[in-house]
Amino acid sequence: MIGYSPQNISAKKAYRLIKKYIRVTPLEPCRLLSQLTGGQVFLKMEHWQKTGSFKVRGALNRLLNLSPAQREHGVIAASAGNHGLGVAMAGAIAGIKVRIVLPINAAHTKVQMLGQYGIEIIQAGRDYDEAEDVAMQIARDCQLTFISGFDDPEVISGQGTLAIEIFHDLPQPDVILVPVGGGGLISGIAITAKQRSPATTIIGVQSEASPAMYRALQLNMVVETPIEETIADGLAGRLVSPTIFATIQHYVDDMVLVSEQDIVAAILWLLQYHHTLVEGAAAVGVAALLSRKINIEGKNCVVILTGRNIDIDRVKDILNHAALNRKD
């Protein structure tokens, strides 16, 4: 299998195109997490990005590179929420009609946020993979351009712009922890980072409830992996792209899993000690450090907080559960 590479991934080119539309998010030191781990931990505050997640970077780069004919026909995407928000914002900037297919169980908060853009929203499929099948069929029937959330060189290049910002603020990171769902973000970051600093270790983090990429790496082959309900819904998916898989095999150094309990604990920890609220998918890197899945002693470590669009009812459940545990 042939993966993506610097020959078709250019974060520098993407950054020149999208920088004026996005927020350059800060890299903040996290002293308490540094004390707990023995390393120097920096949080990339990408959950403060416009639309509430990193996804707008790749969506903007993809839509701004469309041909005039593609722009005229419009685009469609499948999403658990954040990619849809990115495509919706990019469509508003570029003046392109957008349709988004969401799974029927998509977070209510993300559905409401998408509604603000006045786009066509379709809810279909039990999970992301089924929603993607519906979106691709509509794309064929209606001559729309399908905008992948991860398996597209222009989307990956856009996500790779995060690495440009990280290296600007921290010229020599030893470790970068990246949440992994479809794998577009870690592909863009790994390819871009390895060009700047081959010694930088890139580690992906997935939920135990949705371990498709981790399992594929363990088996050394692409397989369909059953998923369970997860608070990290933005990372959930049964299928792995062969191209992304080959890219991760070549550029990513390791992949670890964290439990649902680890993720909830990380959300609470960030809220209590860093006074910042993130969604489950964004918390997996911190979860890996708090649960000692990764040793960063003596190293500079960047943890990417990828999004903040967590449903308020989910937040209430987490806080109520924490309160009950304290009483016990």
Write a structural description.
The chain has helices at residues 11-18, 31-37, 55-64, 68-73, 82-94, 108-115, 128-142, 153-169, 184-196, 212-219, 242-251, 260-273, 284-290, 312-327; strands at 27-29, 40-44, 75-78, 98-102, 120-123, 145-146, 175-179, 201-207, 254-258, 300-304. It is α/β, with parallel strands linked by helices. The protein has two domains: 11-54 and 152-327, Rossmann fold (3-Layer(aba) Sandwich), CATH 3.40.50; 55-146, Rossmann fold (3-Layer(aba) Sandwich), CATH 3.40.50. A six-stranded mixed sheet has the order 1-2-10-7-8-9. Strands 5-4-3-6 form a four-stranded parallel sheet, sandwiched between helices. Helix 1 (11-18) packs across helix 3 (55-64), helix 1 (11-18) crosses helix 8 and helix 8 crosses helix 9 (184-196). 51% of the residues are buried. The mean pLDDT is 95.
Helix content: 40-55%
What separation lies between the terminal Cα atoms?
Answer: 52 Å
**In the CATH hierarchy, what is the architecture of the largest domain at level 2?**
3-Layer(aba) Sandwich
Unreliable stretches: none
Radius of gyration: 18 Å
Record keyword descriptors for this entry:
six-stranded mixed beta sheet; four-stranded parallel beta sheet; 14 helices; 14% strand; 2 domains; 328 residues; alpha/beta; 10 strands; single chain; globular; Rossmann fold
Spell out the blueprint of helices and strands.
Elements (H helix, E strand, L loop, with lengths): L10 H8 L8 E3 L1 H7 L2 E5 L10 H10 L3 H6 L1 E4 L3 H13 L3 E5 L5 H8 L4 E4 L4 H15 L2 E2 L6 H17 L5 E5 L4 H13 L4 E7 L4 H8 L22 H10 L2 E5 L1 H14 L10 H7 L9 E5 L7 H16 L1
Parallel strand pairs: 2-10, 3-4, 3-6, 4-5, 7-8, 7-10, 8-9
Antiparallel strand pairs: 1-2
